[in-house]
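hiii, so i know i said id send this last week but things got crazy w the move. better late than never?? heres the sequnce for the chain we talked about at the cafe, plus the structure i predicted for it. fair warning i was half asleep when i ran it
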Amino acid sequence: MSLDLTLIRQQFSALNRPAVFFDNPGGTQIARQSLERINRYLLENNANHEGVFPTSQASDAVLEAAHAAMADFYNAASPAEIIFGNNMTTLTLHISRSLARTWQAGDWIAVTRLDHDANVTPWVLAAEDRGVNVLWVDFHVEDGTLDMDSLKTALEHKPRLLAVGYASNSLGTINPLRQIIRLAHEAGTLVYVDAVQYAAHGPIDVQKLDADFLVSSSYKYFGPHAGALYGKQALLEALFAYKVRPATNSLPGKFETGTQNHEAIAGVLGAVEYFEWLGETFGAEAGEGLAEEGYSGRRLTLKKALTTLRGYEFELNRAILAALQSIPGLRIYGLTDPRKLDQRVATFSFRLEGLSPRETAQKLAAAGIYVWDGNYYALNISERLGVESSGGMVRVGAVHYNTLEEVARLQEALARIRSV
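okay and structure toks below
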């Protein structure tokens, strides 16, 4: 079944305006189900943890439901493997401190130049604290894909950790994670995956990936500003947790320090419920093969949702690529081969000749089209491409609530800007 964009867009009240939201890689609009969960929590269940009175008990039930929902979303083995926090960056800084306690001076870790800085600097800082060496995995400047030879060379050092992204928030590249994780594990290396950019665009299965850790932030997939970390239970149980003394030693509370943002966690539950609605409404055709892969219940419904929207986003991918390629003097950074659209999400970075990225973004904003400019915290990419000192790039990112008509508006606006 194809997606009914009218019905889908009705789930997002923020879209009831003439603006075109192509700023999605920096944060999507919130789904109705997520907003309703937040409001309901604050109005009906607002209380602290583990009280004996009704609102606290209702609050704890919502938090338990949210852990179970994210376990289903990631296809984790247990809700105990889900850790909530403020965002991916904060969670990564926190877990990096715990992991670094297991490192010894002279050890190695590996990071990539294709990653958001939140999956680079926390590890670099932890390495500095412990006297650990840092290996840098490069990417191909020509098409924005990870340099697998560079990765294999890094893994020869048998690093303690490899930090790698699922998809680039700057260039849209989807990394071949199953291959990467397999190679890393053969070298005895743990893998920490930043899935923030990918989570809105396709299904995630941490068990099939065999990821040791994987983290995302729900405001990138139609929820509130909150992060959700997956970790293999045995690893989480073995790690030292930086926490106050009365806090529990059991999972997941062991790493959920202090009072969490309960209303945001309720909103994450709502975001998963939006995907559940999407799968129930549009995912019938995707369900046949997925059931054979062993998914059932809500996990099957969620995989149907993400698989279905991934199919629609191929159309958006093609349309945006064609629109950008039609503009004279516009240079796209990253994959531009239409035969390789399965290796990218619908996130494109570019520069328009004669204008700085900020000027291009301002002109598009004046036309009612919202995009980002700069480095989007993927600092190593803009430096490696030689554009950091001149303002970075313009970034256009679509998700499944965007339409082909909006892509046409982008093309028309860029053509007008170019002609002036």
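btw The two ends are 42 Å apart (CA to CA). thought thatd interest u
miss u guys!!
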